[in-house]
Amino acid sequence: MSTTLTPPEADIGARDRAIAEDKAADRRAKRAKLVHYYGMPLFLLVVTIALLLYIQGSELDSIETRALAADVQLDRLQQHLLLTGVSTFFVLLLAIPLGIAATRPRVRRYAPIVIGLGNAGQAIPSLGALALLFFLFRTIDWLPSTGTIPVVVSLIAYSFLPILRNTMVGLDQVDANVLEAGRGMGMSNRLVLRRLELPLAVPVILAGVRTALVLNVGTAALAFLFGGGGLGETIQAGFQLNRRPVLIFGAVSVAILALLVDYLAGLVEEFMTPRGL
Fold first, then answer.
1. Which candidate in 12, 83, 233, 238 could, as Cys together with 220 as Cys, close a disulfide (CB 3.0–4.6 Å)?
2. Does residue 26 lie in a domain region?
3. In a domain, 53, yes or no
4. Which residue, 207, 212, 206, is CA-closest to 90?
């Protein structure tokens, strides 16, 4: 015998289904949030443990033991982070103000020239940029041709474009009506830039910073060719000495560092993005 739901019973059933769907959506959102925040750290932890277990399980000779000594690798990691951090710091100091200036009405006509300079820096292969700076610095007596300074300059040139371009794109995409509303409230152009344009452009600018950081981490692995140090020395030692554990440790270490920097930069980008964007 079939029964027919009365209208109140039908409403209760629909409401229960809606509540169940909302709970399921909340559970999916929580799982996605957990994966977003903890997935990459757990993955990097597993890879790091696997790498250390591989090294410990290998029969290392005296050369490999010296090359993979903890103090040696920590010193190279510190050098690598220093090169990445210093070069990114100076790129921020140069690219963001230049990107802001290139979007101002008075100098907007020079924007293609600015972008062209940024493109030139990234169009040259990273190794080629290092070599060009090496020979350029050799012609100037008071500049060192090897070491940290030429490597940092080449990293600045190589990672300049992402931050410059994203700064210009982020400022250009701000709604003109929002800017006009700010000016209508009596804001000066400088105040409009500081309170409206830059906050709204932050997500795009930070995406460029994130890209530049990852580029610098990878490119800094070539710094050893010009006396800049870094984890690339471990990779080079593995090639020169024909020692596979040393080579694998160096290559995987650079990959882990790049992924970790990208993850941390993503967290900073998410934290600094204004709510609602």
1. 83
2. no
3. no
4. 212
Instruction: Quote the domain boundaries for residue 149.
Output: 58-272
- What SS3 state is found at 204? helix
CATH number at residue 63: 1.10.3720.10
Helix 244-272 × helix 7-57 angle, to 10° = 150
Nearest to 269 by CA among 195, 196, 203, 201: 203
CA distances (Å), origin 84, targets 94, 112, 134, 215, 237: 16, 28, 19, 9, 21
What does each of the 277 residues of the chain score in pLDDT, given as a tens digit? 455 545 565 566 667 677 777 677 777 777 888 888 889 999 999 999 999 999 998 888 888 899 899 999 999 999 999 999 999 999 999 999 999 988 888 877 777 887 777 777 666 776 777 777 777 777 777 777 677 888 888 888 888 889 999 999 899 888 888 888 888 888 888 888 888 888 889 999 999 999 999 999 998 998 888 888 899 999 999 988 889 999 999 999 999 999 999 999 999 988 887 775 5
Distance CA 20, CA 12 (A): 12
Q: CA-based Rg of the chain, rounded to a whole angstrom? A: 26
Indicate the number of domains in the chain.
1
pTM of the model: 0.83
Return the structure tokens found at 60: 């290392």
**In the chain, which ranges are continuous DSSP H helix?**
7-57, 62-67, 70-102, 111-123, 126-138, 148-172, 176-184, 189-192, 198-219, 232-241, 244-272
